[in-house]
Predict the 3D structure of the following.
Amino acid sequence: MANIYVQRLAQIAQAVRAQRPLVHHITNYVTVNDCANIALAMGASPVMADDISEAAEMAGAAQALVLNIGTLNARTVEAMLAAGRRANEKGIPIILDPVGAGATAFRNRTAEKLLEQLKIAVVRGNLSEIKFLRGLGAETRGVDAADQDGVPERIELAKELARTFNCVAAITGATDVASDGEKVLRVDNGCAQLSGVTGTGCMSTTLVAGLCGAARPEDYLLCAAGGVALMGLAGELSLEREGGKGFGHFHMGIIDAIGRMDEKMLLERVKIDEA
Amino acid sequence: MANIYVQRLAQIAQAVRAQRPLVHHITNYVTVNDCANIALAMGASPVMADDISEAAEMAGAAQALVLNIGTLNARTVEAMLAAGRRANEKGIPIILDPVGAGATAFRNRTAEKLLEQLKIAVVRGNLSEIKFLRGLGAETRGVDAADQDGVPERIELAKELARTFNCVAAITGATDVASDGEKVLRVDNGCAQLSGVTGTGCMSTTLVAGLCGAARPEDYLLCAAGGVALMGLAGELSLEREGGKGFGHFHMGIIDAIGRMDEKMLLERVKIDEA
Amino acid sequence: MANIYVQRLAQIAQAVRAQRPLVHHITNYVTVNDCANIALAMGASPVMADDISEAAEMAGAAQALVLNIGTLNARTVEAMLAAGRRANEKGIPIILDPVGAGATAFRNRTAEKLLEQLKIAVVRGNLSEIKFLRGLGAETRGVDAADQDGVPERIELAKELARTFNCVAAITGATDVASDGEKVLRVDNGCAQLSGVTGTGCMSTTLVAGLCGAARPEDYLLCAAGGVALMGLAGELSLEREGGKGFGHFHMGIIDAIGRMDEKMLLERVKIDEA
């Protein structure tokens, strides 16, 4: 029997298919195609526009805004700030993916600037990225996850980051955790193969944004946990069907799975609970 | 028995495989990999170069030029104009994809500028984009199709746009129509699943460009209808083989199908006729 | 029985999985997703950062640097030079992919500038690109391979380029050759279908970089031959499993295959030998 979190998540996922929220992305060019396809597969409507000439206008028409710092440049940082300010004015949730925070001074400054100048609804990152944001001095090596710490440490870290920036913080890894500073949810979906495909983090962020785009602010914590749970479940489902073939097919199977998810499947297989 | 339009299209599609026209793209970074792969699958040779330092030179060496405004910025708009002017000088057909026209003032200005300053061979867009270009004040929501109007309205719209800009206009949707201002062709291939994968519009535009690159100007109307017909047929074929698996496999199946198409298949399954 | 080249390659490929070298890419936006996924599939760790604000810092943290000129602009050329200088200072191997060299003056100037101002470890290109770099006046048509010359000519060309720039030069085509100016290796893996998918050249370059990132300078010649051999073998393996389906599935099958490769498979199937 699914708990109230899973039940509510299934409702929001249905609302995404009914409402088709427009999710504006300013994101990296490495995984952008996957983000667009995962948004469509969940029933949302993706749009990408990264120039200062139109970023704010597009953000103002959207139901959620993704800011992903995977392949930054000076031009797109300005567009992120402009789009973010417009989103804040209109109460549109901003989902921040601090890809590679900790790896270079430019990424660090940009992540800090976005968190300081904008009201972020959800930050979703891996452990080393979130540690950097929390000022704990983690060393980020490229854009991969450094996954050594345990669940209690992750919970503490998510709570602290959430309090510091008055947002929801989600940390993905073997066990995912999300917190709004008080409450903490943990997610026990996923599989190791997800780290063998680029962009599964970015796609998780898009899933969080799609859910937020069809939900109310009091649901953002659940949306944060829910987006990473959907990605984890997609990995499990893809592994069952495609796993023996290799990472190319596993990648396609993730998008297949998000498109096939219905209420029944979520109620049976999503594992979200209070930590 | 295939009609003369389908017969002639099959000839042009064969000519693409024989001549391998070079199709230069200045296009968005969301769907660019799919555009390159669909061009290869149809037998054309894709190239992408978006900097003002080389865009015109590359366009001058090509047999067709795609201008796609999906992720614009100030730098690439200048490159589009320079490449377009060189293409016009050399009689190389320009295929314009006005992605998201109507959604922001910047896209609107850019689409107008391209249509006014360049001689465009074919414009291919969805209903709301083409409505915007025709000044009918459609509201474009993101980059998705708004698909409420009927076939007679689409035919009228395509004819009007074609006359205004002295080009071929193709409108894709449940039924696709293309017109040169006088003659109108309709296409009855396709399936609903095509809107569940990002870039099927962009890929259609590349297919139109590949066909134009191996054809004469008097065939551009047929190439416009033909490119969208090939994409529609690819959707049907992929659905037959991959549809039960999900959108990831359906996406790959589209590229599979374009690569498998031969004269016999086109003669049997393409549905193009006078409207 | 595998020869000493294949045995040593199998060791280096194992070292990649053990050490997970960070491979920094400044590359085109057409095939970048495939490069990231192929790096992960071979066990390396990809990162992409193309802005002058962070390119050198990221390169300094990497074990190999890919410079790929597929979609250049003025901004990224500066980032390539800055990243390359840092890599040279720290002894990190630079792998250059001169995509489309010969096609435009801008690409030519950039390729020359990179070869003159940086110490390149390996250049990997197709025949027309490498001919251009050697000043033989080949005409490059778009980014495709022009494949008319025979193996003896390729060997001579690779040796000359390697001597001129004091690097390893690898020329891919029906038969691949690599030389450090003295020694020459030839690779007899591959299949014709590889030219039907965009990015197989770029992915080869990433594979070369991953191997170099886990090897010593005296192994770079073998890594150059080895990277193109792995791509060729991936094509053969994908063709065996996916070939009948089409280019979409063949593309995914390439990534599947790289992920499945183990020591036994390499010892049995890689065909590298002295020319």
About this structure: Chain C has a mean pLDDT of 94. The beta strands of chain C are 22-26, 45-48, 64-68, 94-97, 122-126, 168-172, 176-179, 184-187, 272-274.
